[in-house]
TrEMBL record:
Protein name, per record: Gluconate 2-dehydrogenase subunit 3
InterPro entries: Gluconate_2DH_su3 (IPR027056)
Record organism: Parapedobacter pyrenivorans
Length: 174
């Protein structure tokens, strides 16, 4: 055995022992830094699935790919008052329990048609924590979708104000 091969093998083993624990560890923390909200990693995944249910992936990117759930979390954390933030957190907790009771398992493990049926059932609910949470989430998810880079560059054609000049526009006399 030559010395270079032994050193190379030793470096591979040392690098693997440093990287391997990071592969199996779940942090439990959300992907973005939030100042006022506290959201776990599982709740963030649930919000990602909810965004994907609202905006499914077709020939355009879906809610998960556009990271709408992170947009919603950041907007609720930064732009809403303490009452709305508390209603969002309480509604999220109530939604997790309600969906688990309805489906028998987590919302993230449900089939897409079950997720759609559950979201449709939320829309018929009265004014409670889940309905407030869903209304806030839906409003911010729509805002995030319409302001996403994909929509603003590929779907919306931007024209500078006052718009293009049409020299042949018919002018009528009054």
């Amino acid at each position: 055995m030559n010395r270079r091969g032994a050193v190379r093998t030793l470096l591979y083993i040392a690098g693997g022992t440093l990287v391997l624990p990071a592969c199996f560890r779940q942090s439990g923390a959300p992907s973005i830094a939030l100042q006022k909200l506290s959201v776990s990693e599982a709740e963030e995944q649930l919000l990602a699935e909810l965004a994907e249910t609202l905006f499914p992936t077709t020939d355009t990117p879906g809610g998960k790919e556009l990271l709408l759930h992170l947009f919603v979390l950041k907007m609720v954390d930064d732009c809403h008052g303490p009452e709305d933030q508390r209603a969002f957190s309480d509604g999220l907790s109530a939604f997790i329990q309600w969906s688990h009771g309805k489906l028998g398992h987590s919302f993230t493990l449900a089939a897409p048609n079950e997720q759609v049926a559950l979201v449709e059932a939320i829309q018929t609910r009265a004014d409670d924590d889940i309905a407030k949470f869903y209304a806030m989430f839906k409003q911010r998810a729509i805002q995030g979708y319409l302001n996403s880079q994909y929509v603003m560059t590929n779907l919306v054609k931007y024209e500078l104000i006052p718009g293009r000049y049409n020299g042949y526009f018919p002018v009528e006399k009054d």
